Amino acid sequence: MNGALIFTEKGIYCPAGDFYIDPWRPVDRALITHGHADHARSGHQRYLATHQALPVMHHRLGDIQSQGIAYGERLKIGDATVSLHPAGHIPGSAQIRVEVGGEIWVVSGDYKVTDDGLSEPFEPVKCHSFVTESTFGLPVFTWPSQAEVAKDLNQWWADCVADGKTAILGAYSLGKAQRLMKMLDPSIGPIMTHTAVEATNAILRAQGYALPDTIAVTQDFDAKAHKGGIVIAPPAALGSNWAKKFGPVSSGFASGWMRLRGIRRRRAADRGFVISDHADWTGLLSEIKNTGAENIYVTHGYTDIFTQHLNNIGYKAQVVPTEFGDTDQDSEDAA
Amino acid sequence: MKAFADLFQAIDQSTKTSVKVTALTDYFRTASDDDKLWTIALFSGRRPKRAVTTTQLREWASEVADVPLWLLEESYSIVGDLAETIALILPPPHTRSNLSLTQWIAFLVELATLEPEQRKGRILQAWSQLEPTERFLFNKLLTGGFRIGVSQKLMTRALAKAVDQDEATIVHRLMGGWTPKTVTFQSLILDDDPTADLSRPYPFYLAYQLETEPEELGQQENWQAEWKWDGIRGQLVLRGGQHHLWSRGEELITDRFPEMARSLDFLPDGTVIDGEVVAWDGAQPMGFNKLQQRIGRKTVPKKLLKDAPAILLAYDLLEHNGQDLRDAPLRQRRAALEALIAPLPDDAPVRLSPALHFNHWQSLTDQRATARDHKAEGLMLKNLDAPYLAGRKKGDWWKWKLDPLTIDAVMIYAQQGHGRRANLFTDFTFAVRNGDDLVPFTKAYSGLTDAEFRKITQWVRKNTIQRFGPVRQVTPHHVFEIAFEGIQKSPRHKSGVALRFPRMSRWRHDKPMSEANTLDDLNAMLETYG
Ligand SMILES: [Zn+2]
Ligand SMILES: [Zn+2]
Known about the structure:
The complex is a heterodimer of chains A (335) and B (530).
Chain A: E1 6-8, E2 11-14, E3 19-21, E4 29-31, E5 46-50, H1 54-61, E6 66-69, E7 75-77, E8 80-86, E9 94-100, E10 103-107, E11 129-134, H2 146-162, E12 166-170, H3 176-183, E13 191-193, H4 195-207, E14 215-216, E15 230-233, E16 249-254, H5 261-267, E17 271-273, H6 281-291, E18 295-301, H7 303-312, E19 316-319
Parallel strand pairs in A: 3-4, 4-5, 5-6, 10-11, 11-18, 12-15, 12-16, 13-14, 13-15, 16-17, 18-19
Antiparallel strand pairs in A: 1-2, 2-3, 7-8, 8-9, 9-10
Chain B: H1 2-13, H2 17-30, H3 33-43, H4 54-65, H5 69-79, H6 82-89, H7 101-111, H8 116-127, H9 132-143, H10 152-163, H11 167-174, H12 185-190, E1 205-206, E2 208-209, E3 223-229, E4 232-239, E5 242-247, H13 263-266, E6 271-279, H14 288-295, H15 302-307, E7 310-320, E8 323-324, H16 330-341, E9 350-352, H17 361-369, E10 376-383, E11 391-392, E12 397-401, E13 405-416, E14 425-434, E15 437-444, H18 450-462, E16 464-468, E17 471-474, E18 479-484, E19 486-489, E20 497-500, E21 503-507, H19 519-529
Parallel strand pairs in B: 1-11, 2-12, 7-9
Antiparallel strand pairs in B: 3-10, 4-5, 4-6, 6-7, 7-8, 10-12, 13-14, 13-17, 13-18, 14-15, 16-17, 18-21, 19-20
Helix pairs in contact in B: 1-2, 2-10, 5-6, 6-9, 10-11
The structure holds zinc ion (2 copies).
One zinc ion (ZN) binds at residues 36, 38-39, 110, 324-325 of chain A.
């Protein structure tokens, strides 16, 4: 390997361009795949991300020095040529392509290959070396279609209304929450949001992402006035004091982990919906094939097992230790 | 199968008891008698005979799903359940089946009569017509273990509601050696003949751990105290010239303890005794590891019978001369028990579990402290005026166990959990200090809260020194208090000791590694308690 990118204690580094990708220690120049907390960390001197990803990053990280870039736009940094391509993970998310002297690397960040109707749809990028996540790198993780889950989700909501209960759905406030909102059938009732979710909604709406109407659950919120509704909140809010204001509730939780019965039971929600913003087993394997890459570097998830499988089927794969994944309470089981 | 799968989902997806009971009650009101009977059988641990081995299932699933066998095994170790793993990796069904639960069970029974190659064809066909939940349940039936988190208690409550009977009556009717082949729903639940089954045991009365001081139980003279034996709970049923021994898990263990056959020589017909099966050295129980050698064996070699002879330490009399005594107060049951057992010779397989003499609670507290010398785990306290109840009930029976032994140890290896905790690090190896070395001596995987497991998981991710497959060696840093019930010499372990029921009782954030216990401390515990 020539080392257009190398793996360091601070994160993935490009010596030719003197920049890092999603570093977990403070650096001078950071290229960021997307706005989730385990990828966009605070403390860097300069940030580069897609135009679509920056507003949320500003909201989360405060006053940072940032530069936006359009999907597909090429930028020369030192001796490296850099471009960002849709990763289909959340709005604004990107894979980062780095070319140095004819050698091409792609860092996937988090990605999913199916179109969720909200995020810029995933685009495969040809490369020699591919850095992939493997959050769900086991054959037990295959996702039902979004349409199927949407049907179950709306049925559950309608059942809750019939039972006189408020449906309360736990999901990441950036990405998953908005995706779920778009899957809901607004003819059933009003969609209410926790303020953490609503803050993200406001930012995304201002950017032009089309989201259904929502009612923010603020201090003076009157639950009685919004019977038959569904509430979307960060996972930590489920079962908290905050949730008491809705009276009798039925709780749902939406994540890829809900595929496993054991984790559904640990979550102790009334319903688990298998819906993830990460690629499933089939998605990971098909995408790795599409890149045409020979060298595969595997980051967060079931790295050991997934890497062994890749090696068995003819790739040159290795595990790359990173500090992505599960850095805050909010993200626990929510992937 | 659809109705049964819907029932399962309703039960499995909710955390609320009321929702589960309602779903079960509705099912018991609407399903066919055959389906009801099988549902009761399955939820009370009865199941059709296994027609295929799990090795075969793994191979076939691997083939159909195009997932290499090693990868299936790795997935299984993370999912924690083979039936579920197979259900998840198989491709989606291409047709749907309308067979009922009973018909699927008939399918399984028929499977056992077929040639192995035909069995495979049938199972692949079944997999291709079942939805994932149905497939999971089907696999559960195939693999035998049907523990799916529906307690028998909830099932019984719902059934009692559906047929409008008393819960305790239903509990009793469901005890014993019936199978869906030997009974009908009508004869098991509705007909009026509870003595139909001579082997039928009574539901066990189970105690809670005493969390307060015994003084709070009131007058000491209203209470009986006994040693809490470290064996297995057993119920000996003598009726119609036959004997049956039941474990608390309602398993018939008569053949594992052939010593009990002689009880027919000493005790009258129509006797049912509640007690503890222990390995007995002639004067005292021998320690649980001796008994353990017996539990695993369906037939017992002569030598083992001599090395670890078993007896029943009797502590309650549930049936006397064919009369159900359970409603009588303990004083009366105990008097009858003593009259029955006390005269027996020393070589009888049933002996009396003595009631301890105490004039005030303090004297009992002192005696409890000597429990280990008597090979007991602590004390049992029983209200002398109380009837013999069914199931775990608060108030009249308490176990008052000794505090566990503890040692402060350093975490050195971590491994991911499975099932409920598939994405967390939960299995740890602990070491004691020996000079500058760390000597591993036990594993433990329970005792922390989910929040603590999350915290340690993040820490493990960042502090891994080396990986050995799924095992990660971590920086020695965190100290945990390990609680355990016993300690024994074990040449198979590097440290030379084996602990009984080790678990993490406390995360000692307050202790640096230098203050963890040493190998000398561990050896001293072995001297004292081993
Ligand atoms: Zn992400
Ligand atoms: Zn991530």
